[in-house]
Structures are given as C-alpha cells and as structure tokens.
Amino acid sequence: MDKFDLQGIAAATFTPMKPNGDINTSIVGEYVTYLVENQGVTSIFLNGTSGEGMSLSTAERKKLLEAWLCAGRNRLKYIIVNISCSSITDCKELAKHAEQVGASAVAITSPSYFCPATPDALVDFLHAVSLEAGSLPIIYYHIPVMSHIPFLASTILEAIGNKIPNFAGFKFSDLNLFDASLCMHNSGRRCPLYYGVDEQMLTGMLMGAQAAIGSTYNYLGSKNIEMLSLLQNEKFQDALNIQISIQKHIASISKTGITVPENKVIMSYISGLDMGPPRSPLTACGASRTSQLHRAVDSLQSLSRI
Ligand SMILES: CC(=O)N[C@@H]([C@@H](O)[C@H](O)[C@H](O)CO)[C@@H](O)CC(=O)C(=O)O
C-alpha cells in the first residue's frame, strides 16, 4: 500500500454478522466491490464505532482485518484499523498484529471504564501502545460522545507534543469545530485531522480537515465525493445544497445522529448485502422501525443515485 496520506473520504465499515451474532467475513469481498464500484470509496476505517470494534474479541478483530486486507488487495488504498481496547495488553497485541499483517495505520481512543485522570496519563497509554505498532502511523480517535473523555482534542495534542514519533493526527468525531481548528492551525505544527461528523463534513473540510471518515460514506459515498469535488471547484452553494440534503436525510432518521443498528439496516437495504444484526448489548431494529428506515431511504431519491 502507498505511504499514508488519506484524502477525501473513508468509510467506517460495519461488521457483517450472522443471525446468531457471529462475525460473517464471507461477504467482505462483495462489500469491497460495493464500496469501490458503487460508491467510489477506496479507503476504510475498520473495527471502529460503526464496526462495533469494542464489542468484538481480539481474535475477531484480527480475523476481520485479515479478511479486509485480503479482499482489499489492489482494490483499497488505505485500511485504517481501530485497535482501541480497555486492556493495554490487548491494545498492544492488536497494534503488533496490524503492523505484521500490513494495515495502513492504527487508530486508538482512550480507555473509558478507568478513564485517564489527566491528558498526560492518556498520552502515556498511547505511547506504550504506539511502541508496538512499528512504523505504522498512529491516529488518536477523538470521539467524546462515546469515550466520555473530558479533555479537548487540542489539549490532548499539547500533551502529545513530540512524545509519539509516528503520531499522524486525529480522527475527530466531535461537533466542536473550534477545538478542531485549534488542532489544525494553532499547534505549532499542522496536525492532520480526519473529520468524523458526517452531518457537517463540508464545514469540517472547509476548516481544513484533510479527509473525512464516517459511517454514512458506506452508502452515501458517491454523493459525498461529489460534494467534495464541488467544494474543490469553489462551487460552494452546490456543495452546501448536497450537505443540506444529507442533513435532512440524517435528521429524518434521528436528530442526534444515526446509530449502529439503524445504519446496519440502511446499509443492508441500499447495498443488498446483509449486514446482519448488531451485537449485544445493541439491539436490532424491530419491524416497524425497519420499514420506517426503508421509507426514509426511499425518499432519498431526491439525492438521486446513491
Ligand atoms: C458517533 C458515531 O458513530 N459517529 C460516526 C459518524 O459517522 C455518524 O455515524 C454520522 O455522523 C451519522 O450520525 C463516526 O464518527 C464513527 C466512525 O467513524 C466509526 O465508525 O468509528
């Protein structure tokens, strides 16, 4: 794979599961084909929030990475893998494995049962894990809505300083664009930022994010690529029109963001690939919610080809 320089969008993939809750790697090849051929998406973020990584065993996470690397060979540009775990031992094991099998980069978020008391304690954790990742780029996964870590990304960046040689930026899944901007433009060195709130991706990119990583790029990838191309060509109103229609779609599902069970239903419906149920403790959408989601997707026709 190429030297890591993620641009554009990457899909935070879902983990296909069998009805009994086991992971289903048998459709990973078709999943890659769908992303590349139907959505024009050639980079992925594996085992993240959308991929229910924190609910998978380390063995399952390794198996998924290997399956995606195999299916993605010569077809995917970058495979970034989330290796976050509560146990630093597991986290190190996944870092080492990611390097050995050839992932493009690893992402780590903070443990959140025993939260680090200070940004320095968090950096110590990241540093210890990063030592196992060889030369792989290390991305800090800032997602306070899930991790409940109270520190701003810009504060974490200050604490990182030069302590993590392969530090390669933030996956920034937060609405606070002021904090994002401080990371990108006020840190003494330009910190790459991969924006993670799909509802306001356009603004994140306008502020200077290098790329975007999110769940909806699995099935709205081509629309988002079109929006970014309009942005690049300074057709701001046209780009904004697309962002607003995407926001309307997301709001028609939930005003606080789309969760994994809903996303798996939507992805299955649009792609025709069965993502299966989410893993416990998440619960599958019932029949009435599922038809509501299907109707919301049908009305996406206003966005034309998805
Ligand atoms: C909280 C959450 O799951 N956020 C998503 C978004 O892509 C989110 O699903 C989207 O903005 C729709 O609300 C991503 O930031 C998460 C992500 O990239 C991942 O799966 O790791």
UniProtKB/TrEMBL annotation:
One of its GO terms (molecular function) is N-acetylneuraminate lyase activity. Its main location: cytoplasm. Keywords: Carbohydrate metabolism, Cytoplasm, Lyase, Schiff base. It is found in: Cytoplasm. Pyruvate binds at residue 213. It is an enzyme of class 4 (lyase). Its EC number is 4.1.3.3. The keyword Oxidoreductase does not apply. It catalyses: aceneuramate = aldehydo-N-acetyl-D-mannosamine + pyruvate. GO terms for cellular component: cytoplasm. The active site is at 141 (proton donor/acceptor), 171 (schiff-base intermediate with substrate). The keyword Cytoplasm applies. Pathway: Amino-sugar metabolism; N-acetylneuraminate degradation. Homotetramer. Belongs to the DapA family. NanA subfamily. This is N-acetylneuraminate lyase.
